[in-house]
């Protein structure tokens, strides 16, 4: 079963990664590239601005300097973005497959496309919407609180939202309400950032970046919605196929 | 007799494979989480730069 699930996750992940690359090509990537034009007009100013929330030294050398390797713009960058998307797709698909299979084993869902859509929508709410309420999707050039703080908050928020939604949908009676505080609580602990929203102090750049930022929220939201709905459907179909061919049944657990 | 004994052995093997099934599924979920960590959270600058656009689009905290 382990092998079947891993192989399925990889297969679904490739499809999801390619789909996400397509969504990015029309949605988020042009905005990211445009925002990068404003990212560091004056490296010195940029760096002092960044110093307040720099995460370089302790975090094992995450720098914005030019010495770090980065894919060249164009085909190379697209290639690495696609690979990263595929890996992200595999990661999310592996977790979603296991969650769905757990629900299937308990008879809470049937692995069908419409159930997959519902679970995909819940995944979108937990992994995109919940953290985006506190920390809206960011474009390059935006200033924010320390990276480690935001990463920890992201993980806790996504875990709480997923658990909260799970309780809301799976518990019975009044116990459903126990899911609500899990959804709301992390929003009271958003790592806050004081000071300018963007590192670039030029008012014209700020105006352009603000507009790009608003477009980015929509573009990334739609891209992620498409990603999660597709993930839900594909995982449901894969699980259906695996259970139909007996590769998930307890008798074949070691297969 | 054999009719009576079969269900109990079946039950035993089923509960054994249930544990094995849970472990295997846990391993798959862990595999997924590790990959997501590598793509979205690894602080190495090369990893960050390679996955930069992915991190922004998936709203993993970036920069």
UniProtKB/TrEMBL annotation, chain A:
Pfam families hit by this protein: CbtA
Presence of keyword Chloroplast: no
Biased amino acid composition, Basic and acidic residues: 44-67
Residues that span the membrane, as ranges: 78-101, 113-133, 153-171, 178-196, 216-239
The UniProt record lists the keyword Transmembrane: yes
InterPro entries: CbtA_put
Entry keywords, A to Z: Membrane, Signal, Transmembrane, Transmembrane helix
Segments of this protein annotated with the region Disordered: 43-67
Domain of life: Bacteria
N-terminal signal peptide: 1-24
Coiled coil, from the record: none
This protein's name: Cobalt transporter
Organism: Marinobacter halodurans
From TrEMBL, chain B:
Record carries keyword Membrane: yes
Family annotation (InterPro entries): CbtB_put (IPR012667)
Keyword terms, alphabetized: Membrane, Transmembrane, Transmembrane helix
Residue ranges, annotated region (Disordered): 1-20
Sequence intervals crossing the membrane: 22-42
Name used for this protein in its record: CbtB-domain containing protein
Organism ancestry: Bacteria, Pseudomonadati, Pseudomonadota, Gammaproteobacteria, Pseudomonadales
């Amino acid at each position: 079963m382990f092998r079947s699930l891993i192989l399925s996750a990889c297969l679904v992940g490739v499809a999801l990664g390619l789909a996400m690359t397509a969504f990015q090509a029309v949605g988020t990537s042009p905005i990211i590239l445009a925002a990068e034009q404003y990212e560091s007009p004056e490296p010195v100013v940029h760096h002092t601005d960044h110093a307040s929330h720099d995460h370089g030294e302790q975090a094992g050398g995450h720098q914005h300097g030019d010495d770090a390797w980065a894919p060249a713009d164009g085909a190379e960058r697209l290639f690495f973005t696609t690979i990263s998307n595929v890996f992200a797709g595999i990661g999310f698909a592996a977790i979603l497959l296991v969650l769905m299979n757990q629900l299937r084993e308990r008879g809470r869902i049937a692995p069908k496309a419409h159930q997959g859509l519902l679970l995909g929508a819940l995944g979108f709410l937990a992994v995109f919407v919940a953290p985006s309420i506190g920390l809206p999707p960011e474009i390059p050039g935006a200033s924010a609180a320390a990276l480690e703080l935001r990463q920890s908050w992201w993980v806790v928020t996504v875990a709480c939202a997923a658990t909260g939604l799970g309780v809301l949908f799976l518990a019975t009676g009044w116990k459903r309400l126990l899911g609500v505080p899990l959804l709301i609580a992390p929003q009271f602990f958003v790592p806050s950032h004081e000071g300018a929203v963007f590192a670039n102090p030029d008012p014209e750049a700020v105006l352009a970046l603000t507009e790009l930022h608003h477009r980015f929220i929509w573009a990334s939201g739609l891209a992620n919605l498409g990603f999660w709905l597709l993930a839900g459907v594909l995982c449901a179909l894969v699980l259906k196929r695996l259970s139909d061919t007996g590769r998930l049944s307890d008798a074949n657990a070691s297969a | 007799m054999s009719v009576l004994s079969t269900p109990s052995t079946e039950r035993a093997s089923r509960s054994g494979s249930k544990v094995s099934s849970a472990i295997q599924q846990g391993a798959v979920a862990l595999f997924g989480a590790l990959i997501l960590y590598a793509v979205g959270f690894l602080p190495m600058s090369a990893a960050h730069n390679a996955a930069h656009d992915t991190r922004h689009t998936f709203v993993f905290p970036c920069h």
